[in-house]
Each structure stands twice: as C-alpha cells, then as structure tokens.
Design brief:
heterotrimer, A mainly alpha (194), B mainly alpha (697), C alpha+beta (228), B: 697 residues, mainly alpha, Cytochrome C Oxidase, Chain A, 2 domains, two-stranded antiparallel ribbon, 1% strand, C: 228 residues, alpha+beta, Immunoglobulin-like, 6-stranded mixed beta sheet, 4-stranded mixed beta sheet, 4 helices, elongated
Chain lengths: 194, 697, 228
C-alpha cells in the first residue's frame, strides 16, 4: 500500500535539499577562511608577499583544469541520467584525472614553497594562504575519493537509480568546489597583483 | 615507537591530585554501577538494540534529556564551588581552590551549561516534539539524527576526559580568547580538550540542524502550510536556520585555533603577524547568535504554553512569527557589542550599539503577543504556566540590563563586571532554562504517559525563583560596585563579602529547587497510576502532538492527520474529524553507524589532544570506510503492514480501562507532597532492610 | 533543482547549457587574468574589476552548471543560496571593516608603521616619523648575468629603490658586506625571486653596501642623501 515511487521521490527531494544546505554550511566555513585571508594577507612580518611568491600561469592552469573537470562532470551526469554506463564512466574518469592533475599541481606549489622555507609557521599571511587553499584541496581530495568509490560501484553493480542519485550529489559537490576555486583564484592569486 | 602509539601520554598524564582522583573515581564508580545493574538485569542487549542504536527521534530526545540533566548537575556543582570560593577567599584566606583550578572551573561551567545543558535540552525537545507537531512519522534523515546525538555525547565525554587524562581543563574563560588560548600562554592540554569538545559537538549540532530544517520544510502533514505551523515548530525552524548559519563559523574558527596550537600557524598569535582580535571577532560572530539559537525554541515553548493555558489562540500569530524572524535576522549583526572596549572607533561601536537596541523591538513584540493572549483568557496556573510567569519577570530584568549594556559608554564601565554576568544569567536561566522546564512539564505527560506531580513542581518553581533573586540581584549590585567577573580573591575593604554570602545562600536554594525537580519526577513515577493520562491530551491541547497516544507509538501517528487550521487538533476535536484508515508504514531500521562514527570522531579529537598521530589516521580511515559502506547500502527501512498497525492499536486501546478514557481533572490535592515522598522512601528502605529484600535482587 | 529528476525532457538543451556555461566561464577567467598580467589597471580599480568577473562567473556556474532555480522544488534552494550569500557578506565584509577600523583606531606597532607609510604621516606630536611625504623618484638596480648595475646609486631621502632580478636564479639581497652585515631601515634581507622586483623606500640616510647572499658576485652600494 505504500506508494514506493512517491516515497522515493520525496526522499530524493529531501536528500538533495539537505545536501544543498550542507553545501551552504561548507560555504560558510570557507567564508571564515576568506575573511581571515582578507584580514591577514598583509601581515607578512617582513617576509615575501603574495606577488613575490605566486605564479599566475600555474594558478591559471589549475583554474582551467578544474573548470574543465566541472564541465565533464556535468556531461557525465547527463550520461548517467540516460543510463549510458560507459559514457558515464568515461566522463567521470576524465573528471577524476583532471581533478587529480589539479591536486598534483597544488601539491607541487605547496612543496616548492615549503622547500623555500615559506611555511605556514612563518607568518600570518602564509598561515592563511596554506589553510584556505589547503582546505579547498582537502575537499577536492575527498571528492576524488568519493568519485573513485562511486565509479567502482558502477563497474560492479552497473548503473542503477540509487547510483545515479549518488552521482547527482557528487556533481553538485564538484561544481561547488569549482565555484569556491573561482574566488580563491580571484582573491588569492589575482588579488595579490592588484 | 612509543611516541607513535601514545603521543604525549605518559604516566604523569594520569590523575595525581585528590580532586582529579576523586572525579575519576566518581566517573568509574558510576560506570561500574550502571554496568553491574545492566548485567544483573540482563539489560545490555535491550540497551543496545532499543536505545543506543535507535533512530527514533523520541528515544533520542529522551537520551538528550538524560545526558543534559546529568550535565546540569555537573555544571551546578561547579557553581557551588565557585561561590564558596568567592565567599571564603577574602584577605589572607585563599579559599578552597587555587587560582588556576578556579579558572578551569568557571570555564568548564560556561561550556557545560551552554553546550551540553541548554543545547542538549533544546535538541531533546525539538527531537521529541517537532515531528509530532508537524504530523511526521520520522525525521528527514534518521541516521543524521543519531549521528548528531552521538557527536554531542562525544563532546560531553571529551569535556570530562581531563579528569582521567591530563588533569587540566582550559583556564581561559568559556570562549578561550586569544592569545591567552594560544600555545605560548596555555601550553597544556586543557585548551585542546576545549577545542575538540566544542568541535565534535558543534559538528553534531550543524548536522542536527540541517536535518531539522529538511524535516520542517519538507515533511509536514498534508494541509499544514507554513502559515499553519505551530509556533514551537516555527521557533525551532528559526533556531535551526541560525544554527546552520553560524555553527560553521565556530567550526572554522576552532579549526584555525587548532592550527595555531598544533602546527604553529599564526592566525591569532600575538607574534608572527597574527591578529588576536580577529579571533574575538570570529568567535562572537558565532557566540552571539548561539544565545538566540537557545532562546528562540524557549520562546516557542512559551507561545504554546500561554495559548494552551489561557485557553485562547495566540494573539497575532503573524506578529509572533515575524517577531521571531526579526530576532533571528538581527541576531546575526550585533556581535561586536561583546567587545565594545576592543578599541574600535565610535562609529563602529555606535552602529552595533544601535542594532543591539533595535533587537529589543521584535523581542517586545513577542512579549506583547503573549500578554495579549492572556488578556481575557481563562488562565490556568499549572506549573508550565508558572515557569512562563517567572520567565516574564526575570527575562525582563535581564533584557533591560542588556539595554543598559548596549550603550557603548555604559558598557565601558560595566564590561567584564559581575553586572554583565548577572545580565546574561537572567536571560539564560530566566529565559532558556525556565523555557526548558516549562516545556518539560508541559510535554511530560506526552513523553511518559502520566503527568508530573503538581505540588512538588510548584515547590521547585518557588525555590528557583527565590534562589535566583537571592543569587543574581546581589550580583547586579556587586557589578555596579565594581566587582569584576571571574574574581577568585578580594580584600574585605571592598565590602563584597556580604553579597557573596547571600549569593551562595541563593545558590543553595536553587540547588534545593533542582533536587525537588528530581524528587518531582521520582514522586510522579511512584504515583504514576494516579497521574496516568490515557487520553493523550491532558491539557486540552491545540496542536497535533496531542492528537496521538501518550507515549506515542514508534510510528508517531497511526494515521497522518490532514491539517485544516492553525490549531489543527483543537478544531479536529470540535468537529470530530478523525480518520481511521490504517496504512502501511515505512520505518527506518536502527543503526549503530552514528555511534561508531562518533566514537571514531572522539578518537580523532583525543589523538590530536595528545599528539597521537597513529590514532588520528586510523580513526579517520575508519570513518571513511564506515561512511562509504553506509552510503552505498540500500537497506535502511522496513515496512510495517497496515494489519500490524491495527493490531498494535487494538492492543494499546485494550490496555486502557474504560472508565479512564475521559479527561481527568487536573486537581492536585491528591498529588503527594515532598513529605509524603520522604515518608515513602523511608518506608521503602525500611521494608528492604527488614525483609532483607536485597538478597533476592 | 532539475538535477534531481532523472527524466530530463530535453537532454540536448541541457548539454548546450553546460557548453554555454563552460565557454562563458572561460571568458570570465581569461579576461581578469589578462587584465592582471598586462597591468592594464591596478590597485583598487583592478580588485573591483576582478571581483566583478568572479561574481559574474559565480552567476554563470550557478545558472548553467548547478541549474539553480529550475525544477519543481527549487524555491528553498534559491532562498538558502541567497541567505548564505548574505551571511557570507556579513562575515567577510564585517570582519574586514571591523579589524581595519580597529587598526586605524588602536594600532599595534606594526600597524602604526604601515599607516604612517601608506598615509604619508611624517610627523606625530611634533616628532618626525621618518615617513616620506608624497612620492619621489624611483631608482633601479638591475641584476643581470651575475652583475648589478649601476654599481653605485645616489638617491635622495624618500626616493624609492627597486631591485630588478633579470637572471634565471633567485636572489637574496643582504645589506653590509659578507663579513659585516648591517640592516637598512630595519630591513635585514630582501628576497628577489627570478624575474621579480622588490622595491624599498629610502628612509634612512647614509651610504650602504649590499650583496646577494646566494650569489656573492652580485654586490654594489647606494647612497641616500638628505635633500633638505
């Protein structure tokens, strides 16, 4: 007697909405990190400022990588909606690769800074830089993990309705991370040269 | 290798002074006692299956009450210790506590009362009542709810963990302002415990709040538009919206403070370019709205109570809702009034001072709706209503003293004095705590199936009111005399001592009140046959929670009601519209995922406190694995068939004796008094001793 | 939001929405990048411009990628998004305004020095601060192929001096000589990365030597004279 289809639709709607609210709370976490960066970015205590450290071409590469991955992620979701298993897997595979590439570039930047002695212990500017960009990187990492697990399940179980729902959440998360990165790119990297 | 598995834990971390040994021993004794009873009565399985892994919001609500109740006693003992210290530590005498220990106690008191008592009770009430009020069978995400609860418990355990390991709590004040809370000035583990206790329970609160927002916005009974929602649900919605808006800020701020302490970053340090005032700024962006997160549900409770006990619909429902909305919006933009003396220019101070004054307007609107509701109402003075009247008096004192503090020039004189402490206690005790007490005595019949003892309830109420006035009116005076807050020693020439003595006496009266409340519950359990309410509607209620049985079945409603009007249940009773068409019900399965993740989250925090990196990594991996497994499992619900529902209902109705099916009079002459209770306990104890009954246990 | 419903009536339309969003995002990424790299504008105007582009891209992605506001139950998602945006503004703008106001009003020593420099306050309560009034001439010392030129720069007090590193290796300018290090106006070292410049303002008078601690061949000196 329970109308399972209606029940499932209502539950999906709730989960999607709840996840959206979660993303909003995550945005607020980032807002604190941005506020801290905005307040502390000048406090270098005689050390290098952003414009002495950051490489804009690298930041641009990262931005393009993430933007493209956001695009392929969207295409992947469309493929998943029409239950095209391999098309979905290819799209999300590309997304995964682009994300991983983004992460490796970020790691490269971080290790370079640390090798040069520009660590987060040096001054408030570097603390806020590492934590803001690093928190975004951590989100990317968990997104990649999530993507990998979901793709493994698609391979194992085939593309079913619950997995498409998971992919919808995942792609929401991924687009959201791209949006946060736009502001990191603008405020941290480009902003350093203004 | 040692470092890898144990971090900085050594044998020195174990308790070695008598206070800590005593605390540890008490905790261990309590656990052992509980364990022995559970083993003797063979209740372990019952505890695990029926309670700990339950996803039923009603059971989770009750567990919230129990934990919060324990923490209320724990925080209350802190108060008595502090006030005793303030009475004794004059001139040559150093009192009973060292300065450091005293600082830890007032810090713990603040944290416990706000995070684990007020938040615990509020979340308990919302858990129990909101789904019933909106005619829902469950919450939007039962899993998130149990996870939120267990993270809260994780925070409770973490804040008490210092008794066992480390022996010191933060000595920084409840918000651990920087740079005092930085690693340079607080090198011990106290502040780390503080960070992780708040972090874990704070994340639990965020998750819980998301869940309630989903529930309230998406799961209301058919016909219940937003404009027909009960006021407690409205209040909970506003409270949870604010929680979603500001708890992430707390999470982020604690995260940054953790980075300062653990990795040597420079966010809030005095050196290295850090900005300690940024910490104050961020923590109050969360801290101020937090007070309103606690306050709004209490407002909602009072709206329900006033309307029910005046036997009138609330006067101007719209104004009430708009008032709460106004309070929530304005609450987000007044945080700077907590640090007027920081050194901002008069423009900035004036702006925040004005917004603070403006917030009294929507609050006053709420008060007027309540007063107008009582006007020409047939008021019944049962305990819930008494708590409301106590609230009106004391909260007004607190509110007006708050207006005084909202003027920056006055604040320059009064900040950090006991005047401020008296102000916010008037609001938090008079507002939040009285609201909770009112709510508990109002909804107790729903939760337990029998109402609370009125007589002892009234005694407890008067103890609280008298004790409160004895404690906090002298405190206002002390503040104006110049006594600073967090004072652990002073000279007799200041003339403070007599006031501190009155305060302590007041504290003892409050303690008697609290004891009477425990007695009230015990006496009600003893007399439950007499107090039983079989109608499910002892107060002639107006909203849907009274439409179901008391206590409600685990599926809340046999039939989901269709809502036509604001006072949905009242109108159903008038019109006699009750549907009896049973249907299949989907019930979420119990799960231990919440408890496992909370344990692992606790271990992550504990690992960070003691620099045990192996523990942190292992626990994090554990959390990821559990999440991944749970997220992809499709088996979380089962169907309760309509025939079974019908059988359960028939069974419940059969249990009720025919003559008790009508509303019982609420006359309390037959309720036992305190002395009856004492006599009963003595007789009971004598019976056990004389007949050697303990042998058969 | 339409992302919920697995039955999109018009898939082609959705694909094109992603493509449009992607192209617009690319435009909104490259434009501010080129503005910054080519120094078309600078300072506050640049900051406002690039933030405007970021906001535009935010809107593009929200509309074309997240499809916010589309679908049956989208209302609440939009409300929450707008509400969060306002809360974020309160957090960021509130913090910046409060803290900068605080630093103008009750400053730390570090902050005082910054304000003195940026506002050109050259005297406080009748005492000279050492800050310079107005802008003066800029001098350049170019480090190229392991040599710095000119070897000696003569400048007036309050002029500015820019080290330009045109080599492919990073440099670190120290003051004094290798055996006897000194500081200039409280500065002990100056990192000048490859293809970067560093500017200092000349507030201390006298003759100073400098060298590159990473490449000792690079060295030179400058003199600052009081022009009053």
């Amino acid at each position: 007697m329970v109308n399972h289809k209606a029940h499932q639709a209502a539950a999906d709607d709730r989960v999607m909405f709840g996840f959206w609210v979660y993303l909003m709370t995550d945005l607020l976490v980032f807002s604190v990190l941005f506020a801290v960066y905005a307040v502390l970015h000048g406090n270098t205590v005689g050390g290098d400022a952003g414009r002495d450290l950051f490489s804009l071409p690298l930041a641009l590469q990262e931005t393009i990588l993430l933007l493209t991955s956001s695009f392929t992620c969207g295409l992947g979701l469309l493929a998943a909606r029409s239950y095209k298993k391999w098309q979905t897997l290819i799209c999300f595979g590309i997304t995964f690769l682009l994300g991983a590439l983004f992460l490796s570039l970020e790691m490269k930047e971080f290790t370079e800074f640390i090798r040069e002695g520009q660590t987060l212990q040096l001054n408030a500017f570097l603390s806020s830089f590492f934590v803001l960009v690093g928190t975004h990187g951590l989100h990317i990492t968990s997104g990649l993990l999530w993507m990998a697990i979901t793709m493994a399940y698609i391979l194992k179980r085939g593309l079913n309705a619950p997995l498409v729902r998971k992919l919808a959440l995942l792609s929401l998360f991924w687009h959201f991370l791209d949006i946060v990165w736009i502001f990191i790119f603008t405020i941290v990297y480009l902003g350093a040269y203004s | 290798m040692r470092e890898f598995w144990l971090g900085r834990l050594t044998s020195h971390s174990l308790p070695h002074d008598w206070v800590m040994v005593g605390g540890t021993a008490t905790f261990i004794a309590m656990f052992l006692f509980a364990a022995v009873i559970l083993t003797r009565t063979k209740r372990w399985k019952w505890l695990w299956n029926d309670w700990l892994t339950s996803v039923d919001p009603k059971k989770i609500g009750i567990m919230y009450f129990l934990v919060a109740g324990f923490m209320l006693i724990r925080g209350g003992i802190d108060v008595i210790l502090m006030w005793l210290q303030q009475v004794l530590a004059v001139d040559g005498s150093q009192g009973i506590l060292s300065a450091d220990h005293y600082q830890q106690i007032f810090t713990a008191h603040g944290n416990i009362m706000v995070f684990f008592v007020a938040m615990g009770f509020i979340f308990g009430l919302i858990n129990y009542i909101v789904p019933l009020q909106i005619g829902a069978r469950d919450l939007a995400s039962p899993l998130l709810n149990t996870l939120g609860f267990w993270l809260y418990v994780g925070g409770v355990v973490m804040i008490n963990m210092f008794f066992v390991f480390g022996g010191e709590y933060a000595a920084t004040g409840w918000l651990a302002v920087a740079p005092l809370s930085g690693i340079d000035f607080s090198p011990g583990v106290g502040v780390d415990y503080w960070i992780w206790s708040l972090q874990i329970s704070g994340i639990g609160t965020t998750l819980g709040a998301i869940n309630f927002i989903m529930t309230i916005l998406k799961m209301r009974a058919p016909g219940m538009t937003l404009g027909k929602m009960p006021l407690f649900t409205w209040a909970s919605l506003f409270s949870m919206l604010m929680a979603v808006a500001v708890f992430p800020l707390l999470t982020a701020t604690l995260f940054l403070q953790f980075f300062d302490r653990y990795f040597g970053a420079h966010f809030f340090t005095a050196l290295g370019g850090g900005d300690p005032m940024m910490y104050t700024n961020l923590i109050w962006m969360w801290g101020h709205p937090e007070v309103y997160i606690l306050m709004l549900p209490a407002f909602g409770i009072f709206s329900e109570v006033v309307s029910t006990f005046s036997r009138k619909p609330i006067a101007s429902y719209t104004a009430n809702v708009l008032g709460m909305a106004g309070v929530s919006v304005l609450a987000l933009s007044v945080w700077l009034h907590h640090f007027f003396t920081m050194g901002a220019s008069s423009d900035v101070n004036a702006f925040f001072g004005l917004v603070t004054l403006v917030i009294s307007i929507p609050t006053a609107v709420l008060f007027f709706t309540w007063i107008a509701t009582m006007h020409k109402g047939l008021i019944r003075f049962d305990t819930p209503m008494l708590w409301f009247l106590g609230f009106v008096t004391i909260f007004t004192i607190g509110g007006v003293s708050g207006l005084v503090l909202a003027f920056p020039p006055a604040d320059f004189q009064l900040h950090n004095s006991l005047f401020l402490v008296a102000h916010f206690h008037s609001n938090v005790i008079g507002g939040v705590l009285f609201g909770i007490f009112s709510g508990i005595s109002y909804w107790f019949p729903k939760i337990a199936g029998f109402r609370l003892n009125e007589r002892i309830g009234r005694n407890a109420f008067w103890c609280w009111i008298i004790g409160f006035c004895m404690s906090f009116i002298p405190m206002y005076i002390l503040g104006i005399m110049g006594a600073t807050r967090r004072l652990d020693h002073y000279e007799s020439s200041t003339g403070y001592q007599p006031f501190f003595i009155i305060m302590l006496l007041g504290g003892i009266v409050i303690a008697v009140g609290l004891t009477l409340q425990i007695v009230q519950i015990l006496a009600s359990i003893i007399q439950r046959g007499h107090l039983r309410d079989n109608t499910g509607d002892p107060w002639n209620g107006r909203t849907l929670e009274w439409a179901t049985a008391s206590p409600p079945p685990f599926y809340n409603f046999t039939v989901i009601p269709h809502v036509m009007t604001r006072d949905a249940f009242l109108d159903m009773k008038r019109l006699g519209q009750f549907d009896q068409q049973y249907e299949d019900i989907l019930i979420p399965k119990n799960t231990a995922v919440g408890i496992y993740i909370a344990i692992l989250a606790f271990l992550v925090g504990f690992g960070f406190v003691w620099h045990i990196n192996s523990l942190v990594v292992i626990s994090l991996i554990g959390i990821i694995i559990i999440f991944a497994k749970r997220a992809f499992s499709e088996d979380s619900e089962y169907t309760l068939r309509a025939e079974e529902v019908e059988k359960l209902e028939a069974k419940r109705i059969a249990k009720v004796p025919a003559h008790e099916k009508e509303v019982k009079s609420l006359a309390d002459e037959e309720d036992m008094s305190v002395w009856d209770f004492v006599r009963y306990v003595i007789t009971f104890a004598m019976d056990i001793i004389r007949n050697k009954k303990w042998k058969t246990w | 939001m339409s992302t919920i419903a697995p039955h999109d009536e018009n898939e082609q339309k959705t694909v094109s929405s992603y493509v449009v969003g992607f192209i617009l995002s690319l435009i909104f990424t490259f434009t501010p990048y080129l503005l910054v790299v080519n120094h078309y504008i600078s300072g506050r105007a640049l900051l406002i411009t690039i933030l405007t582009f970021a906001m535009a891209q935010l809107l593009v992605q929200v509309i074309f990628f997240l499809h916010l506001g589309r679908g049956a139950n989208a209302r609440w998602n939009v409300y929450f998004f707008v509400g969060t945006f306002i809360a974020m503004l309160i957090v960021v703008v509130g913090s910046v305004v409060i803290i900068s106001n605080l630093h103008n009003n009750a400053t730390t020593l570090d902050q005082t020095r910054k304000i003195i420099d940026s506002e050109g306050i050259y005297q406080v309560s009748g005492e000279l601060t050492g800050a310079c009034q107005g802008r003066h001439t800029n001098h350049q010392i170019v480090i190229k192929a392991g040599k710095s030129s000119p070897i000696l720069t003569i400048a007036a007090k309050c002029d500015t001096l820019t080290f330009v590193n045109k080599d492919a290796v990073d440099g670190q300018i120290m003051f004094g000589t290798r055996t006897k290090q000194t500081t200039y106006a409280g500065l002990d070292k100056l990192a000048v990365r490859k293809d970067h410049t560093k500017t200092i303002s000349l507030s201390e008078t006298g003759t100073f030597k400098f060298y590159d601690s990473l490449r000792p061949v690079v060295s030179g000196s400058f003199a600052v004279v009081d022009d009053k």
